[in-house]
Amino acid sequence: MKGSKKRLGILGGISAASTQKYYQKLTDLYYSLEKDYYYPEILINSLDFQYFTDLENEKRTTEYIQYIVSSIHQLQKAGADVIIMAANSPHSVYDEVKTRVQVPIISIVETTAQKAKELNLKKVLLTGIKYTMQSDFYQRKFKTYGIDVIVPDEQEQIQIDEIIFKELAIGKFLQSSRESILKIINGKNVDGVILGCTELPLLIKQENCRIPILDTLTLHVEKTLYNLLCKLKER
């Protein structure tokens, strides 16, 4: 990787807490694999989190797509060769976005579905913010892999959503909240759980859970770094 100019563009700030974790995991994993300091060059475009979530909650889809696309274009202009959107929810419009940009976007949903297939999971629970749990982009992708996706009931969705926005997004981690989410997970007849919000892995770990967890943040980081290392070694 010496002398490489390959650049990763991160669409971040959604939220700040998970974007920090992305950066840390990318650099830590790189060093653990390569044992040198020739880290990939990383560009971060940190979005207005409140505006972003307002667009989601108010279902202003056209503006939402436009905001994501224009932000990726800024990363392109800065020299990004590959993009990741450092959150699950913008992948609800992944197909619409990828046709409007000129660089590849590594999908967190595709990556997670591939891992679920590898683990031979048949039925999984999707957790995340309400926007994600009430959308169908995970269900559609997982169906192509022969995997069913279910979501918590309405009250459970509200509870998880509040924990994410009122606690995890600002770096607050409570044992009581961990126990609440685990109770929801353990109450479902599933063989795996998707942590479909990149803040959730900051609270829920595999050692906390009796069934396999799909840590979307870590899976996304691993796929991204694998992509970068392969591309760089081809140069």
From TrEMBL:
Gene Ontology MF terms in the entry: amino-acid racemase activity
Official protein name in the record: Aspartate racemase
Signal sequence range: none
Keyword Repeat: no
InterPro entries for this protein: Asp/Glu/hydantoin_racemase, Asp/Glu_race, Asp/Glu_racemase_AS_2, Asp_race
Keywords for the protein's UniProt record, in alphabetical order: Isomerase
UniProt cross-references to Pfam families, sorted A to Z: Asp_Glu_race
Superkingdom in the source lineage: Bacteria
Family from the record: Belongs to the aspartate/glutamate racemases family.
Native source organism of the sequence: Sporolactobacillus laevolacticus DSM 442
